[in-house]
Amino acid sequence: MRILSGIQPSGKLHIGNYFGMMKPAIELQEQGEAFLFIADYHALTSVNDPAVLRQMVQDVALDFLACGLDPDKTAFYRQSDVPEVQELAWLLSVITPMGLLERCHSYKDKIAKGVAASHGLFAYPVLMAADILSVQSTIVPVGRDQKQHVEVTRDIAIKFNNQYGEVFTIPEPSILESVAVVPGIDGQKMSKSYDNTLEIFGEPGPLKKRVMKIVTDSKELEEPKDPDTCNVFALYKLFATEEEAADLAARYRVAGFGYGTAKKELLTKINDHFAPMREKRAELEKDVDFVNDVLRQGAEKARAEARETLQAARKAVGLE
Ligand code: ADP
Ligand code: TRP
């Protein structure tokens, strides 16, 4: 099994990213050959300040290493250190039907949110297909919002293989349904674009404030409450054992339990869960050379695979 995933360095990572993508991807490194990259080419579709981009790449690298990515098990690299994906993206572009890209929700959502409608943004899924196909990955762990992009990748790979012969492995998305959509503090999908996130490595003060602001219904203290429709409970469940979740759910249903208590318990869970990772991150921050070495070695490994795939693709289309 070959596992690949990527993340854009375009904002502070939040617990939606953590449960939806980081944690599953990090856990899968135990089960196969894993590749994980920082999608800096993709980030250029929305980040246009070079200093900000550099900082965000560095931050994401630290975040993943602090959260348990093991560079001995996972090739961890920067997308732009594997320029072969760009050439591969072109070979895929020329057989990608416009209609396939026109149907992509993510493009439409981003335009609706005010991201400039560039050719790069429109062609984003083709570059993503090149990332995935370049290392012949079989499994792509992502949150639900990226599922369509993996399906587009499959369509492109199948079309290429039918037209030119078997060059690409057809990948499958891997989506953990239990964490497919982590809610934000306003109840919508947690996303940096909605300003509703709880950051993994945020400062304690602002984090506490945001947890206390999580939207709930307006039931009085003496009314019993429904855990299954509550955002605080949905977030708590991500961190709790089954028994802890059952215990909190039972307390919700008894009069006299307030949302403030649930929020405080959630905050404790978040802080306990991320405490060792925050500590590790602070240590790693002092060792920039180590982080750069990890990324360089990861790129070498990914590049060796990408070169081979690209050569097969070039040959198949008649460039060699
Ligand atoms: P954002 O929505 O904050 O911009 P990204 O689109 O950069 O996040 O997503 C990075 C990864 O994290 C993707 O694999 C995505 O599916 C996953 N992800 C993001 N938000 C959530 C969420 N609220 N619940 C589950 N997974 C998520
Ligand atoms: N589009 C993904 C996101 O926004 C990032 C990404 C780029 C990716 N290339 C990928 C994810 C390849 C998985 C596989 O989160």
Task: Provide the succession of SSEs.
Answer: EHEHHEHHHHEHEHHHHH
**Shape, please?**
globular
- Number of domain units: 2
Terminal Cα span: 30 Å
- E-strand count: 5
The first-level CATH class name of the largest domain: Alpha Beta
User: From the structure provided, what is the oligomeric state, counting identical versus distinct chains?
Assistant: single chain
CATH homologous superfamily classification of the largest domain: HUPs
Low-confidence stretches: none
Q: Helix amount, in percent? A: 55-70%
Q: Structural class of the secondary elements?
A: mainly alpha
Described by strand count, sense and barrel closure, the largest sheet is:
3 strands, parallel
Which second-level CATH architecture of the largest domain applies? 3-Layer(aba) Sandwich
| Overall pLDDT metric | 95
Rg from alpha-carbon coordinates: 21 Å
What small molecules accompany the polymer chains?
adenosine-5'-diphosphate, tryptophan
Strand order of the largest sheet: 1-2-3
How much of the sequence is in beta strands?
5-15%
Tally of helical runs: 13
CATH topology of the largest domain: Rossmann fold
